[in-house]
Design goal:
The protein has 530 residues and is an all-alpha fold. The chain contains 26 helices and 2 strands. Belongs to the PRP31 family.
């Protein structure tokens, strides 16, 4: 096995080729191929393993041996990949100096045997449902390892996609920003080819792969380019790399479909909730059931979401259209409730994934129970509001109503209504200057038509007072005044009463004085004595 430092040192020495070292190029590429592939150096062991793959599956021992041999190679590849990630490979390798894509691919030697083994298992209809997780079970171990192998296929596609972009960028660099998906990018490149001038005539073929908006942007971008064809040797390597990407994507789909059909034993609870196909997509993306079980629930809806193209295209509705969005449990929900449904399902599927990782409820009972709970929550969420009929008016309470009218109320309004002088102050004569008065606080108040200049020529110097606002005596006070004949009114007392506020009616006062003057003096003395 090659260490990471030695591997990177070999890559740097191999890819820094000068023009004088062209004769040694083939030998360096062979060394890189051996270093990147990370397969056992013993060629005899590889030949024996490949011969075991082709063993007739009629007997269980032969099938288990073939699975075990293939699984061993797949595990070695997956474990070696963990020493150096695909992102590090893309950053540290000089893609433009690589002549052939086969020097950096690692899965081509294993891809055909894996697909052949899947065909054999499907043809013989091997039953996985009665198996339980065991390292000695070759069939089940192959199923688990295939799930990890799918994620490695995705890494391989990313690596080859980076190689294609670096080689094709001198021809049409804008294509990688318009078509972001690696598979769609390769399919589009194969249709456009090296002749960009004829790209508009191939729009009908491109419509099968990408949208009409992207086709329009591609055609407009080509018109602004200075077309210069790539050398045929470079174009052939690009075409080979595109074909490899398409082949890897087809293999990934086939392996994913196979795992989804056999997933009832590996993750029974998870597959009961979101379906086998969606479950294997999430597991493949995360790198296995253990990685999925420790993923935060808020990240689940965004797993598998295609990044929007940053060329002015908008997106309406839900942005997180990943693997979970395409599952049956979410697609059956109306669009207005899909975001809430994904939030509910995300938390529940992680609980099921942890159950499957712990090996509990292997019959899928927890998944079935959880699915029923989710469906009840969604039904309650989508249920229309209760049809409440018209609400009856409350029973009126018998109580005395407040009197807001009548003679007394009208009298009170007449007392405090606006006077004629105030009304005149609010009006102005057109074409005449308004009289103003200064208050003690320095404020200037306009008099309007109540001013002297406005009243000149009208004969009215002062406004007539309102007689309705004259204060009237109460009934009690009137009765006291009428009974004044029982009192002795002297000159002093008369003057006192005359100057008081109560004797405002002069006629009553005069009449009472006349009556007292006509009475005899004896009677008066008698009254005084009494």
């Amino acid at each position: 096995m090659v260490d990471e430092e030695d591997f990177l040192a070999d890559l740097e020495n191999d890819f820094e080729l000068s023009g004088e070292e062209e004769n040694e190029e083939d030998e360096d590429i062979q060394e890189v191929d051996k270093a990147v592939s990370n397969v056992d150096d013993d060629q005899d062991i590889k030949d024996n393993e490949e011969s075991n793959i082709n063993i007739d599956s009629s007997t269980n021992d032969g099938a288990n041996a073939a699975d075990q041999a293939l699984v061993t190679r797949m595990k070695e590849l997956v474990n070696n990949e963990r020493n150096l990630s695909t992102e590090d490979m893309i950053q540290r390798l000089d893609m433009k100096s690589i002549k052939s894509i086969k020097t950096i691919t690692k899965l081509l030697s294993l891809l055909d045997p894996v697909l052949q083994r899947i065909d054999t298992l499907e043809k013989n209809q091997v039953d996985f449902t009665n198996n339980h997780y065991s390292t000695t079970d070759a069939h089940y171990d192959f199923l688990v390892t295939s799930n990890e192998f799918v994620s490695e296929i995705g890494n391989e596609i990313s690596l080859i996609h980076s190689f294609i972009k670096s080689q094709y960028s001198p021809q049409f660099s804008e294509l990688e920003t318009i078509v972001v998906d690696p598979v769609e990018y390769c399919q589009t490149l194969l249709i456009i080819g090296n002749d960009l001038g004829n790209a508009p005539s191939k729009s009908s073929e491109l419509k099968k792969i990408i949208t009409g908006e992207k086709i329009l942007v591609i055609n407009m971008s080509i018109l602004e380019l200075k077309i210069s064809n790539l050398p045929q040797m470079i174009m052939n390597s690009i075409i080979d790399a595109c074909n490899i990407v398409i082949k890897l994507d087809a293999a990934r789909i086939k392996i994913t479909k196979f795992i989804s059909e056999k997933l009832s034993t590996y993750a029974p609870n998870l597959s009961r909730i979101i379906g086998s196909y969606c479950a294997v997509q999430l597991m493949s993306y995360c790198g296995g059931l253990d990685k999925l079980a420790y993923t935060p629930s808020c990240n689940i809806p965004s797993i598998g979401t295609k990044k929007p193209v940053k060329i002015g295209f908008g997106q309406v509705g839900i942005r997180q259209k990943g693997f979970l969005y395409s599952s049956s449990i979410i697609s059956e929900v109306p669009e207005n409730f899909q975001r809430q449904a994904m939030r509910i399902v995300s938390g529940k599927l992680l609980l099921a994934a942890r159950m499957d990782l712990a090996g509990s409820n292997s019959d899928g009972s927890f998944g079935i129970k959880t699915l029923e709970e989710i469906q009840k929550k969604l039904e309650k969420l989508m249920a229309p509001p209760d049809n409440v009929g018209p609400k009856a008016l409350p029973i009126p309470i018998d109580k005395t109503s407040k009197k807001r009218g009548g003679r007394r109320f009208r009298k009170m309004k007449e007392k405090y209504q606006m006077t004629d002088l105030q009304k005149a102050q609010n009006r102005m004569v057109f074409g005449k200057e308004e009289d103003t008065v200064m208050t003690e606080f320095g404020d200037e108040i306009g008099l309007g038509m109540a001013g002297r200049n406005s009243m000149l020529g009208t004969g009215n110097i002062r406004a007539v007072g309102n007689t309705k606002i004259k204060h009237s005596l109460s009934k009690k006070m009137n009765n006291r005044l009428k009974g004044a004949d029982s009192d002795v009114l002297t000159i002093g007392s008369l003057g006192h009463h005359y100057g008081s506020k109560h004797l405002t009616n002069v006629d009553d006062l005069v009449n009472s004085l006349k009556r007292k003057a006509d009475e005899p003096v004896g009677n008066e003395k008698k009254r005084l004595h009494n």
